[in-house]
Each structure stands twice: as C-alpha cells, then as structure tokens.
Amino acid sequence: MTSLSHPGESCALLGSLVERIDVGIFAVDRTGTVALWNRFMAVHSGKSSSEMLGQNLFAMFPELPRPWLEKKLESVFVLGNNAFTLWELRPYLFRFPHNRPITGGLDTMRQNVTFLPLRTPGGEVSLVCGTVFDYTETALAQHSLHDAIAALNKEKDAQAQLIVKLEAAQNQLLQSEKMASIGQLAAGVAHEINNPIGFVNSNLQTLKKYCEQMLQLISTYEPTEAQITDSGLLSRISNLKQALDIEFLQEDLPALIKESEEGLVRIKKIVEDLKDFSHVNESEWQYADINAGLDSTLNVVWNEVKYKATVDKHYGELPAIECLAAQLNQVFMNLIVNAVQALDESKGMGTITLSTGHQDEWVWVEVRDNGRGMSDETRRRVFEPFFTTKPVGKGTGLGMSVSYNIVQKHHGRIELTTAPDEGSCFRVWVPVKQAQAAAP
Ligand SMILES: Nc1ncnc2c1ncn2[C@@H]1O[C@H](COP(=O)(O)OP(=O)(O)OP(=O)(O)O)[C@@H](O)[C@H]1O
Ligand SMILES: [Mg+2]
C-alpha cells in the first residue's frame, strides 16, 4: 500500500481514481442536483460532467423511474444507510446503450447500483453517491446458462422418453423370451406325453373289450346258478356277489371306462394345443382369402355357436394375404370359441360380430361379443400361457397364447378392447405381405 504524505496529494489521487475507475460514480443532493459525474457516466450517457454538474438528474434523464428513485434516495438521506438495486430485479437504472447483444441487436447495459450516504464533518448526509456497475457480461453468461439448462432439460425429457420406450422393448423381449422357453417346454411335454397316451388309449380300448366280454360271460353264467345243487358252493357265490356288490360293479365298470376315454380325449386336446403352441406342426406359407378362412372356421365351430349366439358378419373386400392359413384359422377359432364361452346364457341368445377390413398394407379381423367382458387382471393376463378363468377341465388357458404366437409369427398384432359386462373385442392385424411387414 502506498503511504501518502500530504492530504492534498491523497485528495488528488482519490479524485483521479474516481474519474478513471471503470465504475459509474455520481452524486446528487437532496433536490436531485448533480454534484459528481465521473468519466464512466459521461462516456456511457453521452453527457459530460460540465453538462451535468448543477443540473437536476431527473430533468437530464427523463427515462429514470422517478418516483421509485426519489423514494430510494430519500431513504438514504433520512436513514443514512446504503441502498441497492440489482440487475436481476431491475435490469438497469440509466438506459446506457451496450454493444453486446443479449437477445440480438443492441441492448441496454445491465446494472447493479449502490446508493451510499456522504456525510458532512457534522455527520449530516449532504449527498448520496451512486455507483453503477456494469453486469452485462454476467447477464449474458446467465442467459447462456439458462439456454444450456433448457437444452439439458429437453435432453433429459428425451432420455426419459427413451427409457420408457426401452422398458417397453425390454418387456416385449422378456415376453417373447418367455414365450420361446415355454414353447420349448411345451414341445417337450407334448412329445413325452404323446407316446403313453397312445398305448394307454389302445390298452383302454382292449380293456373295454375284455370287460364287455367278461360281463357277457357272467350274465350268461347267471341263469345257471339255479341248477347248482352244492349248497356250500351256492352260499360262497352268493357271499362273494354280496361282498363285491356285483350289480353295482356291472353298472359302474362301463361308466368308469367311458369316463377314462373322455379323460383321454381331453388329454389329447391338451397335447394338440401344446403342439400348436410350440409350432410343432408347421405348415406352408401361402396366399389365402381371409374371409373364406373365417367362414370355414365358423363352420367348424358352428355346433358350439348356433344355440348360444347369432352371428353378424361385416366382411370388407380383402386382398389375398401371405400367411400360414391353417394357423390363422386356429386363431379365429380360438377367438370365436372364447366369444361364445363368454356369453351369459341366462340373458338369452348373445351376438357375435365378425368383421374384416383392409388398411394400407394391412388386413384386420375382428371378433366381438356382448358377453361378460374381462376384469383388468384378466385383460392383462389373457395372452399368458395356461391362464384361464374357466373351470377345471373346460379351459387349458392356451387358446390365446397360441393365438398370440401365431399372430407374432405373421408380424402382426392383436388389439383388445374390453370391460366387465361390456363384452370384448379382439382385432387381429396382419400384413398383406410378409417381406414388407414393418413394425406397425
Ligand atoms: N371373449 C372373451 N370374453 C371374456 N373373457 C375372455 C374372452 N376371451 C378370453 N377370455 C379370458 O381369457 C382367458 C384365457 O383365454 P384362453 O383362450 O387363452 O384360455 P381358455 O379359453 O380359458 O382355455 P382354452 O385353452 O380352452 O382356450 C379365459 O379363461 C377368459 O377368462
Ligand atoms: Mg379359449
């Protein structure tokens, strides 16, 4: 620090500092008359100190926020405390031009202004000194910071959307992986069960024949009992007959065999479903008429439908589409059978609406029923293998997962609209040509 020997020298230095410093410095008395106006103020306002000294500040700068500034100055005069104005709240006090574009083009210098009380040796505030700091650079930096934050937020939003998409893609992947492994399992199980079913079925037929023959033999023997004279033998026969409850046995044996046969038919159906599910029975790709396929499928299941529902058809004109026709028919069959099974018989005949249509390179088939509809949980799980709400023995819960897989294989999709008591509507979309099948 330089030490100053004469007070006059220090005053001169101070005056020179006030004049040259890169901060605006001015002072006014209580009437607003200018008592100090440094070079910074002169350069930026275009008004020299000789023009300004002795003039009223508000008269020289009509753009100043007069009521606000007068109040501010008065408070410094009265209270003797510093006061401030910050550029964030009030961008500027003096409208000084500035060559740095803030929002493009010429803009006004951003300013922080401090008002300091200057006292007489008696302690009275005689002048208020204002210091004007140029904050334009900071403002510019803050603007670009805001822009950068906005850009970052935009990117963050885009990333969040991407994450949602990724999650959906991952779920789909998991779903198809699950389908694939369940498919392998199903194929294995179907294969393993097929052989025993074969011999159990054939043995059961033989057993049935043997039983019939034995029962025939017994009924032929029966009348000869009257001719038996050996009373010991007679009583043994009669005791045995009683112990075995032979009459019940004769009645129950054919019934047991019949039930076992029905059980086998059900097992066979499950194995067939499992095979279809795992695509064991691949067939040929061909061009087929979907409307005709739908009609022939309806014929196959007509017996199930005719007493429970009327069928409304609204077929559009469709191009032949490249498909595994037999498998698509199986999808239609599963949908129609489910629709029939969803009808509430206590409400009389239901309605099943079959519609088809064509849009760009896609064909759709819709199966709608006015049955029970589905709860949220059922709707979520309907395509899950083995998911069924039907009683034991009625549904295997594979119909929809088989259908889902078949439609996937055609690069198509299934849309489902349903609500409890409002019926269900399945719409199957498949591309006309497989080569062009892009994700819908
Ligand atoms: N049209 C529909 N209306 C109401 N619920 C339905 C409909 N279609 C399917 N569901 C529900 O989805 C479940 C699964 O259907 P899915 O066809 O896969 O199996 P399932 O019909 O129970 O048995 P199956 O293997 O014999 O077809 C059904 O048990 C039923 O709860
Ligand atoms: Mg079904």
Q: What does this entry look like structurally?
A:
The protein has 440 residues and is of the alpha+beta class. The protein folds into three domains: 7-134, PAS domain (Beta-Lactamase), CATH 3.30.450; 171-277; 286-431, 2-Layer Sandwich (Heat Shock Protein 90), CATH 3.30.565.10. Helices cover 51% and strands 18% of the residues. The chain has 13 helices and 14 strands. Helix 7 (231-244) packs parallel to helix 8 (246-277). The longest helix has 86 residues, at 136-221. The model has no long low-confidence stretch (mean pLDDT 88).
CATH topology of the largest domain: Heat Shock Protein 90
End-to-end separation: 79 Å
Structural class: alpha+beta
What is the domain total for the residues? 3
Write the layout of secondary structure elements.
Blueprint: H1 7-20, E1 24-28, E2 34-37, H2 39-45, H3 49-52, H4 57-60, H5 66-79, E3 83-85, E4 97-98, E5 107-108, E6 111-119, E7 125-134, H6 136-221, H7 231-244, H8 246-277, E8 286-288, H9 290-300, H10 302-305, E9 309-314, E10 321-323, H11 325-341, E11 350-359, E12 362-369, H12 376-381, H13 399-409, E13 413-418, E14 424-431
Parallel strand pairs: 9-11
Antiparallel strand pairs: 1-2, 1-7, 3-6, 4-5, 6-7, 8-10, 11-12, 12-14, 13-14
Helix pairs in contact: 6-8, 7-8, 8-13, 9-11, 11-13
In brief:
This protein is an alpha+beta fold.
Key words describing this protein structure:
440 residues; alpha+beta; Beta-Lactamase; Heat Shock Protein 90; five-stranded antiparallel beta sheet; five-stranded mixed beta sheet; 14 strands; 18% strand; binds adenosine-5'-triphosphate; binds magnesium ion
